[in-house]
Amino acid sequence: KQEVTQIPAALSVPEGENLVLNCSFTDSAIYNLQWFRQDPGKGLTSLLLIQSSQREQTSGRLNASLDKSSGRSTLYIAASQPGDSATYLCAPAEHGGGSQGNLIFGKGTKLSVKP
Amino acid sequence: NAGVTQTPKFQVLKTGQSMTLQCAQDMNHEYMSWYRQDPGMGLRLIHYSVGAGITDQGEVPNGYNVSRSTTEDFPLRLLSAAPSQTSVYFCASSPQDRARPQHFGDGTRLSIL
Fold first, then answer.
1. How far apart are alpha carbons B39 and B68 in whole angstroms?
2. Of A44, A51, A57, A104, which to mutate for an interface test with B (greatest number of B Cβ within 10 Å)?
3. Nearest neighbour of A105 by CB, restricted to B42, B50, B56
4. I need a surface site. Which of A79, A87, A106, B73 has the fewest CB within 10 A?
5. Interval B11-51: pLDDT, tens
6. Nearest to B47 by CA among B39, B38, B57
């Protein structure tokens, strides 16, 4: 059974810092890995998707890497802003669920960026 | 473009009552799924569907039924509500394409008394 761990569980940083969120998973047989953002009381917003054949993806100040063989992914946030405060969720897509794959979620990293 | 729409947003039920959580998407996505989110547990998959007429169980299917009669709709039915089903429920959809991300609704917050 796929197990997903996110470290740290919570993080508080001053505005402007570069930071790294970590995700590890136990089964490397994945279709892709997705990073989401969740604001309090809201749904999930997709940030980045890395396919199993890729090593990284970038979107603006966000960069996600994937090392499938070691079961690790990192989300790098450059020049953090108070608006980045949210919970960040990592979810590899395991085989099954047709060709899309079913997502298995970590418990998230709650990020607080102080002005 | 509405995306994934979940109704209701909030609901309070008594133990033993039944109800249906609605989920609709207007993106012609083949894949749809239901998750529940509980404090300290993360999101867990309840049921999913890869197309109209096809459904399958996820990690925590007990106490829930689903059907998929159209591409657009994927309702989740609680047969006899129990306090353990108090949770936030999310519906998601995506194309059957592993290069495309899943889109989530805003959730239904359900309390069972």
1. 29
2. A44
3. B42
4. A79
5. 999 999 999 999 999 999 999 999 999 988 889 999 999 99
6. B57
